[in-house]
Amino acid sequence: MGNFNQPPGDPNQPGGPPPGGYGAPPPGGYGAPPPGGPSPYAPPMQYAPSTTPGGPIPGSFGLGFAAGFFGGCIGFILVLAIAKGAETKRGAKIGFIVSIVIGAIFRVIASASN
């Protein structure tokens, strides 16, 4: 009795299973260049630049303002930690300050009405 997991046929015979058996990684492993090297006719790989061609990424003041205003401390900290644009960070600072001022005004009005 043979191994039931092996496909029939001799691996050394033509037309048999590939080297290493069925399901084995290709020669050289996954991600290796094809046998014989990359094609000389293939275009070179091009990657997008990390910043815009005119300098750093400017960011979005409105999105930063919304994150600082509606997100409170957590939104403000996340924008400062993650955002790359200076305008986004400036918007988050101003939005956070505006939310604190509006909150203080509401507290004064609430305490004066009692």
Descriptors:
mainly alpha; 2 helices; 44% helix
Structure description:
This protein is mainly alpha-helical and 114 residues long. The chain has a domain at 61-113. 44% of the residues lie in helices and 0% in strands. The protein has 2 helices and no strands. It has helices spanning 61-82, 86-113. The protein is elongated, with a radius of gyration of 31 Å. The N and C termini lie far apart (92 Å).
Describe the main β-sheet briefly: none
Beta-strand residue percentage: under 5%
Radius of gyration: 31 Å
Oligomer: single chain
- The structural class is mainly alpha
Beginning-to-end CA distance, first to last residue:
92 Å
Secondary-structure element order, N to C = HH
Q: Overall pLDDT, averaged? A: 77
Q: Give the CA-based shape.
A: elongated
Number of helices: 2
Query: How many individual β-strands?
Result: 0
Helix content: 40-55%
Poorly predicted segments: none
Can you lay out the helices and strands and say which pair or pack?
Elements: H1 61-82, H2 86-113
Helix pairs in contact: 1-2
Question: How would you summarize this macromolecular structure in one to three sentences?
Answer:
The protein is an all-alpha fold and 114 residues long.
